[in-house]
Design goal:
mainly alpha; Arp2/3 complex 21 kDa subunit ARPC3; 193 residues
Length: 193
């Protein structure tokens, strides 16, 4: 049972439904690029602190599973093409090589995280704060799982090292990001009513 996501409600009130959907996907892609530029390198890990996961989760919930995933696939496609859309790094190249580096698992998880968060939003989990936290947490769990596994085995730091450098330092800030992101959608639904 699919319930409308935020974009469905907004676009149903306009005569340019298809155009609004395209613009919304482009907007979330640009927001993801902007969030990557807010990057804080940490001395003990190759994974920088960025605002990207919050944008990925919000975009998935607001656009729905298919369009939220599309925004992240577009983001990765632009990055693979060599555009400077990934977080700045003194050692990691822009382009396809970034996906092979230690942050590749996090980046490659974005379409799946947006898909799952959007799927849960399409089931109405974005309407109330607590269920919105659950939807956002499910998406964030995907980001962390893919990122840590890639860091462990793709970057060869081992599972314990990956958890120590790619998960634990990010949990407090990402919990705050999930709580903030989860508050936005129920507020937007109240505003639209």
């Amino acid at each position: 049972m699919n319930t409308p996501v935020l974009l469905d409600v907004v676009s149903s009130r306009a005569d340019f439904s298809a155009a609004i959907r395209v613009v919304a996907v482009l907007f979330v892609t640009v927001l993801t690029i902007a969030a990557a530029q807010v990057s804080i390198p940490l001395p003990f890990t190759p994974v920088p602190f960025t605002l990207q996961p919050m944008v990925v989760l919000l975009g998935g919930a607001a656009l729905g599973a298919r369009l939220g995933m599309s925004a992240q696939v577009l983001y990765l496609t632009l990055g693979i093409a060599g555009l400077s859309v990934f977080a700045a790094s003194p050692i990691l190249p822009q382009g396809f090589g970034r996906l092979l580096g230690p942050t590749g698992g996090y980046l490659m998880s974005y379409p799946l995280a947006a898909l799952v968060t959007g799927y849960l939003a399409q089931r109405g989990l974005d309407r109330r704060y607590l269920t919105s936290v659950i939807a956002m947490s499910a998406g964030l769990a995907i980001v962390f799982t893919c990122g840590v596994l890639w860091l462990a085995f793709g970057a060869h730091v081992g599972l314990a090292g990956a958890i120590r450098t790619g998960l634990i330092p990010f949990i407090p800030a990402d919990i705050v990001k999930v709580f903030l992101a989860a508050a936005i959608l129920p507020a937007a639904w109240k505003f639209l009513r």
